[in-house]
Amino acid sequence: MIDFIGLRIAEFSRLIFPEIQCLMKLERRGCGSPRRSPHDAALTVVLRFDHAYSRAMLGEMKGEFHRILSPTAVGTRWFMSGEKVNPTVGGVLLVARFRGVCRADRIDVPVSDGGPSGSTHLVNGEILPFPDIDCERVRAIIAARLGMEGPMQCQRLLGRALARVLAHEVYHVVLQTSSHGPRGIMKASLTAEDLVGATLRFEPEQLAQIGAALKGEAMDGGRRRLTAALGESLRQPPPQ
Ligand SMILES: [Zn+2]
């Protein structure tokens, strides 16, 4: 389902510049001080929607994402792109970009082209904390199921599916790995049943890994990677 997209760093800088400014301010203000306790460990996700999205979808996406990570006891804080990020926030920071229309009530049902529903950016060997989610492809995968449901349930199912794709990408970013598993959320390719079925979760070992990474040394490592990536992107010349 994934993953690595060759991306011109200059273009990448242009795409995420508002978030870069926001996160650099966060860094300068000492967010995520090493003095914080493990109870402060958190995952902060900044959501950036390119097009229309449904509030019902968004509520369900956050809820399902919380249920997926809840065994780790790591909280998730959500911000919308452009929103001021709380300067007391610590832990791992990600900016998730949602491409295409993220509503389930559109008549123009997209056709799946078999491409990935989520992806991450690989620059100089680092998986950057800026995953992309393709709403059009997710809608295409679950289109048959959406056709059987009422409007509100459709939004909820789309939110559930997007949460699972997001969790998949977050694992790649936090663990800095491109590996997949034979079952669960980290399967290389997620089917419609995987995306909207009753339950899809990390395998126990994967859950332990991501929980430990979010709570432990990887938090500082994540910030170092983020800072390095931002610094690298800003050193590049603008697009010609
Ligand atoms: Zn993957």
Describe the 3D structure.
The chain has a single domain, classed as Collagenase (Catalytic Domain), CATH 3.40.390.10. By secondary structure, it is an alpha/beta fold. The protein contains eight helices and seven strands. Strands 1, 2, 3, 4, 5, 6 and 7 form a seven-stranded mixed sheet that branches. Mean pLDDT is 77; it is low at 2-15, 20-39 and 227-240. 45% of the residues lie in helices and 15% in strands. The radius of gyration is 17 Å and the shape is globular. Zinc ion binds at residues 1-3, 168, 172, 180. Residues 1-3, 168, 172, 180 line the site of zinc ion.
Characterize this entry briefly.
By secondary structure, this protein is α/β, with parallel strands linked by helices. It has helices at residues 9-28, 55-69, 135-141, 143-146, 151-175, 192-196, 204-215, 217-235; strands spanning 4-5, 42-49, 75-80, 92-99, 118-123, 126-127, 132-134.
CATH superfamily: Collagenase (Catalytic Domain)
Principal-axes shape call: globular
- The helix/strand series, from N terminus to C terminus, equals EHEHEEEEEHHHHHH
CATH C-level: Alpha Beta
For the record, give the distance between the C-alpha atoms at the N and C termini, rounded to a whole number.
32 Å
Return the domain count.
1
Instruction: Report Rg.
Output: 17 Å
Low-confidence stretches: 2-15, 20-39, 227-240
